[in-house]
TrEMBL record:
Residues 19-33 have a biased composition (Pro residues). Residues 34-47 have a biased composition (Low complexity). This is Cobyrinic acid a,c-diamide synthase. Residues 1-55 are annotated as: Disordered. It comes from Nocardioides zeae.
Length: 119
């Protein structure tokens, strides 16, 4: 007579093996701008999302050289500053910086100058 083997259920196989991650800490408040500096509500309120689950996705195509520069910047941040970030977070931070500069400086921002061919 053949013997039947008892196998674990899917719930047993895929159960969490570590404790849940703690809730993310709120980002520190940015330092007050110097006296006389112009700020807009959009620039002051713009914060990157950091390491959270993102619901939206955007595909960006880059050249091989641009990808190597991005990866080089990521490795440089890790080597020189001890800041380990992935490429997605690095891109989100760069976009946030560019948008804050655009909010604050408008046509004089670096992104506006570059896109208009001046920079």
């Amino acid at each position: 007579m053949a013997r039947r083997v008892s196998l674990p259920s899917a719930d047993d196989l895929f159960r969490p093996t570590t404790e849940p991650a703690p809730a993310p800490q709120p980002a520190p408040e940015p330092a007050a701008p110097p006296a006389g500096a112009a700020t807009s509500a959009g620039a002051a309120a713009r914060r990157t999302s950091g390491r959270v689950k993102h619901d939206e996705k955007m595909t960006v195509y880059v050249t091989s050289a641009e990808l190597l520069e991005l990866e080089s910047a990521r490795l440089r941040l890790r080597a020189e500053l001890g800041t380990a970030v992935d490429r997605g977070r690095l891109v989100r931070e760069a976009v946030a910086l560019a948008l804050a500069d655009l909010d604050e400086n408008g046509a004089d921002s670096a992104i506006a100058r570059r896109l208009s061919g001046e920079g």
